[in-house]
Amino acid sequence: MRTTMTRNRAIFVYGTILILLLQIPTYFLLRQDAEGLLLYVLLLLLIVLTLWRGIVFGLISSLVLIFITGSTLLYTGISGSLTFLDPAFSMQLFFLYGIMLLLLILCAGRVHELMKDQENYLKKLQEDVRNYVAIDVETGFDNETRMYISVNEEMRRADRQKQTFVFMVLKIENYRKFQQLYGAKEIQHLWQQLSQRIQQTVRLTDKKFRFREDHIGLLLIDTTDKYMEVIYDKLDQALKNHQLLNGKWVTISYKTSYFTYQPLQESTFDELLKDLEREMKTSAL
């Protein structure tokens, strides 16, 4: 919170300095003819682009503008030919314009950096909140962070006690399409129904996780391969059909895979999880 307030204060300070400095070229350029107005518009455009793209882009664009405009002004003074800049627009005034332009770009670039840092900091805070809030609101299952902790703990326990366990992944197919067709309320209802039926199907001692948007993980403690067909049948019966809020029944499909952890297995959970995702087979509920 203190970091956010400090950055907000810095953004306010640099923003105020930027506005105050902008008054100087505004006063002098708007008193000129069309040439002054053109340079003023270019100045505002560069400030906006710097606030959007950053200080490097702003400085490069400013140097290009100063070079082109200064060269044109110098050529006008030497040759006396007609260009978009009037010779009355002196080199001294253009020199001051260049200095003010660079100062304004530096100030705008600093505002951009502070705003970017603030945005990244807020994103990090949101990510931390998601990681530390262990329970998924829609399902009541543990989240991805808790999944990694729980599975790694179970791997260590299995190594000590020479026992096996099964970790199973369910991925809801066409999840985005379902969300687009039926909306947020139906998505929430879907997850509530899925979580209730899964809770009723597996044991209370088994752990359930929702990781990513459309993935469910099941940690089946003290389980071996020989029970998987029974578990698949139970899940098939429990999750085969889904009733929408309007009473209509729809069929949900998912991809599934599992691994059986053997004591003292060398593979990490990350490696096993990646293997699961590659091996997923489609099952119609």
Describe the 3D structure.
This protein has helices at residues 2-29, 34-53, 55-79, 91-132, 144-161, 175-201, 228-239, 269-279; strands spanning 165-172, 207-211, 215-220, 241-243, 249-251, 253-261, 281-284. It is an alpha+beta fold. The strands form two sheets. A five-stranded antiparallel beta sheet has the order 2-3-1-6-7, with helices on one face. Strands 4-5 form a two-stranded antiparallel ribbon. A hairpin with a 3-residue loop joins strand 2 and strand 3. It is elongated, with a radius of gyration of 32 Å. The mean pLDDT is 83.
How is the secondary structure organized here?
Blueprint: H1 2-29, H2 34-53, H3 55-79, H4 91-132, H5 144-161, E1 165-172, H6 175-201, E2 207-211, E3 215-220, H7 228-239, E4 241-243, E5 249-251, E6 253-261, H8 269-279, E7 281-284
Helix pairs in contact: 1-2, 1-4, 2-3, 2-4, 3-4, 6-7
Q: Concise description?
A:
With 285 residues, this protein is α+β, with helices and mostly antiparallel strands. It is built from 8 helices and 7 strands; from the N terminus they run H-H-H-H-H-E-H-E-E-H-E-E-E-H-E.
